[in-house]
From TrEMBL:
<protein>
    <recommendedName>
        <fullName>Leucine carboxyl methyltransferase 1</fullName>
        <ecNumber>2.1.1.233</ecNumber>
    </recommendedName>
</protein>
<dbReference type="InterPro" id="IPR007213">
    <property type="entry name" value="Ppm1/Ppm2/Tcmp"/>
</dbReference>
<keyword id="KW-0808">Transferase</keyword>
<dbReference type="GO" id="GO:0005829">
    <property type="term" value="C:cytosol"/>
</dbReference>
<keyword id="KW-0949">S-adenosyl-L-methionine</keyword>
<dbReference type="InterPro" id="IPR029063">
    <property type="entry name" value="SAM-dependent_MTases_sf"/>
</dbReference>
<dbReference type="GO" id="GO:0009966">
    <property type="term" value="P:regulation of signal transduction"/>
</dbReference>
<feature type="binding site">
    <location>
        <begin position="156"/>
        <end position="157"/>
    </location>
    <ligand>
        <name>S-adenosyl-L-methionine</name>
    </ligand>
</feature>
<feature type="binding site">
    <location>
        <position position="85"/>
    </location>
    <ligand>
        <name>S-adenosyl-L-methionine</name>
    </ligand>
</feature>
<comment type="similarity">
    <text>Belongs to the methyltransferase superfamily. LCMT family.</text>
</comment>
<feature type="binding site">
    <location>
        <position position="182"/>
    </location>
    <ligand>
        <name>S-adenosyl-L-methionine</name>
    </ligand>
</feature>
<dbReference type="GO" id="GO:0032259">
    <property type="term" value="P:methylation"/>
</dbReference>
<dbReference type="GO" id="GO:0018423">
    <property type="term" value="F:protein C-terminal leucine carboxyl O-methyltransferase activity"/>
</dbReference>
<feature type="binding site">
    <location>
        <position position="60"/>
    </location>
    <ligand>
        <name>S-adenosyl-L-methionine</name>
    </ligand>
</feature>
<comment type="function">
    <text>Methylates the carboxyl group of the C-terminal leucine residue of protein phosphatase 2A catalytic subunits to form alpha-leucine ester residues.</text>
</comment>
<keyword id="KW-0489">Methyltransferase</keyword>
<dbReference type="InterPro" id="IPR016651">
    <property type="entry name" value="LCMT1"/>
</dbReference>
Length: 317
């Protein structure tokens, strides 16, 4: 495979999706959907988003959290987390504040995203103090940020040799591994995503992979979603894999994972604890419930595993 990837305007549009995700998360946090003391450093000013967007983000964050918790329950803190296309995700800091801080946390994204995230970390004591050693130091090497147990690395996920090299530089080892791919694989061409997934499944014999991204893109609503993204210069090269959730699970099994399950987010939403749904439904009025349902039907959460320890992970666990 050709490892030289040229930089395009489309990549800029993909990178901008991180700003979007961060602003939506900050808006929902401000409205009380969930707690995140760190998102404020990554998105300064945000306009209020529509209620269905806020609820959709709540379901996404809550569902990811539920499975992250199940993973950590099974392997404790002697594990590693690898966040693919991490954007400005704040999970590392949230775990640090809990009893679930992990042994090693590696984040990968395009160089410009990594540079911005590093800059924000270095400028904000509340972020920096959670990653630096006792002397308050972090090491910056070739644009990457390294510290004990946290590595923020620039990498193009379409280039497998770079991924392998960066994971090595981040100290990825044989410990149980949680792999996160939240709204990222869809930006990779199917062959690049397959190569990446096959590599990960082969490299980590005890792992859980969480994939959150679009699904059911073949119907009318899906077509409108794609047209809107395309109008912003953002194509979805991974769209052929964004069919029904069953196809998402089949793709992960084909890549070498031993178990794989996927649910659309409407199913996930309905599986959330009743009291959690009631709490967020009381936060703001949502006139058009069908809109939330349509949105939820066009995103899916997939969970793939390797190793006996994780075979029973489930939505209703
Ligand atoms: C929609 S954002 C999601 C960010 C984060 N995972 C979250 O859920 O908040 C997609 C992220 O994937 C990153 N990304 C997309 N394609 C990538 C690639 N080929 N290599 C590295 N990062 C990539 C983008 O730069 C962006 O930060």
């Amino acid at each position: 495979m050709n490892n030289i990837i040229s930089w395009t305007a489309e990549d800029e549009a993909i990178i901008a999706t991180n700003t979007d995700a961060t602003e939506c998360k900050r808006c929902a946090v401000e409205l009380g959907y969930w707690k995140d003391d760190y998102i404020v450093y990554f998105a300064k000013h945000v306009d209020r988003k529509a209620p269905e967007i806020n609820r959709g983000y709540y379901a996404r964050v809550k569902a990811m959290e539920m499975f992250i918790h199940q993973f950590l329950e099974r392997c404790g803190t002697k594990c590693q987390i690898i966040n693919l296309g991490c954007g400005f995700d704040t999970l590392y800091w949230k775990l640090k504040d809990s009893t679930q801080a992990v042994g090693n946390f590696i984040e990968l994204d395009f160089p410009s995203v990594v540079a911005k995230k590093s800059h924000i970390i270095k400028r904000n004591k509340q972020l920096l103090e959670k990653i630096s050693n006792e002397d308050g130091e972090v090491m910056i090497r070739s644009g990457d940020l390294h510290s004990d147990g946290y590595h923020l690395l620039s990498c193009d996920l379409r280039c497998l040799s770079e991924v392998v090299r960066k994971l090595e530089a981040g100290g990825a080892g044989a410990a149980p591994t949680l792999l996160l791919a939240e709204c990222v694989l869809v930006y990779l061409r199917p062959e690049a995503a397959r190569a990446l997934l096959e590599h990960l499944a082969g490299a980590f014999p005890r792992c859980v992979l969480l994939v959150y991204e679009q699904c059911n893109l073949g119907d009318k609503f899906g077509e409108v979603m794609m047209r809107n993204l395309s109008a912003r210069g953002c194509a979805l090269p991974g769209e052929p894999h964004c069919r029904e959730p069953g196809a998402q699970a089949a793709r992960l099994l084909a890549a070498g994972f031993e178990t794989a399950r996927a649910w659309d987010m409407d199913t996930v939403w309905r599986a959330l604890p009743e009291e959690d749904r009631a709490r967020v439904e009381a936060l703001e009025m949502l006139d058009e419930r069908e809109l939330l349902q349509q949105l939820n039907l066009h995103y899916a959460l997939s969970v793939a595993t390797r190793g006996d320890l994780f075979a029973d992970l489930d939505l209703n666990a």
